[in-house]
Design brief:
The chain is of the alpha/beta class and 313 residues long. It has a domain at 231-312: 2-Layer Sandwich (Alpha-Beta Plaits), CATH 3.30.70.100. 37% of the residues lie in helices and 27% in strands. The protein is built from 12 helices and 14 strands. The protein has helices spanning 2-7, 48-55, 77-81, 99-109, 114-128, 143-154, 173-188, 200-203, 223-229, 243-252, 276-289, 304-312, and strands at 8-19, 22-33, 37-41, 63-68, 71-72, 84-87, 161-165, 192-196, 208-213, 216-221, 235-240, 258-262, 265-269, 294-300. Strand 1 (8-19) and strand 2 form a beta hairpin. Helix 4 (99-109) packs parallel to helix 6 (143-154). The protein starts with a helix and ends with a helix. The relative contact order is 0.13.
């Protein structure tokens, strides 16, 4: 593992965590090259946060191993913590402190002082758009500003790796986009980023992904690889004049793996190893019989959401 650990920020081998008889993380294997944005996706309770907490050294694995920045998460956690940053969904900020006081506190926690602290604070205030608001109480900041300040406190010591747990939950779309632009900048400068998210548009921006369900990795790869290789059936996009009625008709056929509304269109996932053309004909016939006008039924490249739902199922 030594050679590989020189090029990878994270390597897990059969990483497992049990709580009594319950297995929260079940023999998980993945690796993250240095300088990459890695997305970790799964429904609530799937094992995302438990996996992250083991990598952060907050939970001891029941079995298996994990290296972070070439260091063992059990034996060398104090060395790891000096080189990583962590940002939680709830933003670990002190609302009764000012922006400046929060930065001073976290700088001190990580041993950043003097001229170095002044330089890092200037960078973060500029990055977060908070220049001129240094003396404002953190509780008075908008969600987007709080989010960027929280990111600033997590990177004040210039960590080699950043762990982000649902960092954009509850933040408006414009702030989410601005936040991701900051993550790209950090990754381009060499910071490795491990991020959990529920947003499929954000997952598209990760270089590699892993889907976890009931503690097991059910799919992994780049977004493009997943769309091409991880979808068990074909995806047909149905454009018709009564999509809500059409969904009921298509589900009542009890043939398809998934039938779901995507905007004004319907995505139908066909069973594996069946001919898409036969399903296209059957869909048109069933909807016509129900008095629904069908404009098109086209085979499409699956969306990441299609792949995610199929993998989780």
């Amino acid at each position: 593992m030594t050679m590989k650990s020189n090029h990878h920020a994270v390597i897990t081998e059969n990483l497992t965590k049990k709580f009594g008889d319950f297995t929260a993380v079940d023999h998980v294997n993945f690796s993250i090259p240095r300088g990459q944005i890695f997305g970790f996706l799964g429904p609530n309770g799937a094992g995302k946060t438990t996996t992250m907490r083991m990598l952060l050294g907050l939970l001891r694995p029941t079995a298996g191993t994990a290296l972070v920045l070439g260091l063992d998460v059990v034996q060398q956690i104090s060395q790891i913590r000096r080189r990583i940053g962590y940002m939680s969904q709830k933003f670990s900020l002190y609302n009764d402190l000012t922006v400046n006081e929060n930065l001073n506190f976290y700088g001190g926690t990580y041993g950043v002082r003097g001229q170095k602290l002044r330089e890092r604070k200037a960078y973060i205030l500029n990055m977060a758009g908070l220049k001129g608001r240094e003396r404002e109480l953190t509780r008075n900041l908008s969600g987007g500003w709080k989010q960027r300040l929280a990111l600033g406190t997590a990177i004040i010591h210039e960590p080699d790796m950043l762990f982000l747990d649902e960092p954009t939950a509850g933040v408006d779309p414009i702030s989410r986009r601005a936040f991701w632009n900051l993550l790209y900048e950090l990754a381009e400068k060499g910071t490795t980023i491990f991020v959990t998210t529920h947003y499929m548009d954000e997952a598209e921006h990760c270089q590699n992904l892993a889907f976890i369900q009931r503690g097991k990795i059910v799919a992994q790869g780049s977004p493009q690889e997943m769309k091409l290789n991880q979808m068990p059936g074909d995806v047909l996009e149905v454009d018709c004049n009564h999509p809500n009625r059409a969904i009921r008709v298509l589900r009542d056929m009890a043939v398809f793996t998934e039938v779901a509304l995507y905007g004004a269109q319907i995505h139908v996932v066909t069973p594996p190893d069946t001919a898409a053309e036969a399903h296209r004909t059957a869909i048109k016939a069933a909807l016509a019989a129900a008095g629904i006008q069908v404009n098109t039924v086209d085979s499409i490249v699956p969306s990441l959401e299609d792949v995610f739902i199929a993998s989780v199922k």
